[in-house]
Inverse folding.
């Protein structure tokens, strides 16, 4: 179940990306974190507790929102603008 429910930006241009192979859609101006959490309840599992994490500060300080793209690039989702064709891989099934 998505953590975020979009109530604005419904008329901004759609941007396609994938989340664990699932076709998803964000909106122009979304951060990667916003786009992911509009489709999933978390962005990753904690390497310490194994619990789902969904970002905390939303401003690039806490390091809680690191995600990995299919090519291996690691990104801080809250400070990364969503771009067409991004392929996010959680490797945890939390996004399904
Ligand atoms: S949510 Fe804190 S660094 Fe991204």
């Amino acid at each position: 179940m998505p953590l975020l429910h979009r109530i604005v930006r419904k008329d901004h241009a759609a941007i396609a990306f994938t989340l664990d192979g699932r076709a998803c859609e964000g909106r122009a101006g979304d951060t990667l974190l916003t786009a992911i959490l509009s489709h999933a309840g978390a962005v990753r599992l904690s390497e310490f507790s194994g619990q789902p994490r969904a970002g905390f500060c939303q401003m690039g300080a806490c390091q809680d929102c690191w995600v990995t793209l299919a090519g291996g690039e690691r990104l801080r989702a809250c400070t990364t603008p969503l771009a067409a064709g991004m392929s996010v891989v959680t490797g945890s099934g939390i996004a399904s």
Remarks:
- The CA atoms of residues 31 and 81 lie 4 Å apart.
- The chain has a mean pLDDT of 91.
